[in-house]
Specification:
The complex is a heterodimer of chains A (88) and B (110).
Chain A (H helix, E strand, L loop, with lengths): L1 H24 L3 H26 L2 H26 L6
Helix pairs in contact in A: 1-2, 2-3
Chain B lengths: L1 H24 L3 H27 L5 H34 L10 H5 L1
Classes of the chains: A mainly alpha (88), B mainly alpha (110).
Amino acid sequence: MQYVFLYAGLYLCILMLLSLYRAVFGPTVLDRLVGVNAIGSKTVVLLILIGLIYGRVDMFVDISMAYAMLNFIAVLAASRYFQKRKGL
Amino acid sequence: MNVLVIALLVVGLVFFTGGGVGILRFPDFFTRLHPAGKLDTLGSLLMMLAVAIYNLEHFSWEALLTSLKIMLIVLFIFLSSPTATHSIVDAGIRAGMVPWRKETPEEKAE
């Protein structure tokens, strides 16, 4: 059962590479923001899978919750910061 | 029980795959927000549900608390992901970006 979580985590990492392409080569700033947001929401799941592999879910749940809040605040602040600029 | 956990994990990964391919392939930033906002939320729900069910395999009160925390993260994602998506759309509209639309045949002929 550990291997199922391991391979699910590896597949999530490959999917994060797809979003990373959009975050690096995105034509506009907001495209990069979309890619970063997608990577963050995958990382929250990946942290809990890592916790299951290590057998310490009770600790990794708190880290994952903090990461979810941090990701939300970062995206909100960045989009508020960039909205005044014409022609991104 | 393990079959249910694996099925939920695989369905969640399918939704995440759709989100990733949509972010890569859609033509415009407004259309890219559509897979990024929806499919990631549903994929998170399914995968977190699988982990919470697996965590309750040997019942104890600590395991129940951990599973409740995992579902609390899902609730937070369901609140925060649409808010973040709406805020990005708002930034795009205020910056004056025009949504993508398909070329009509007259425009393509020119």
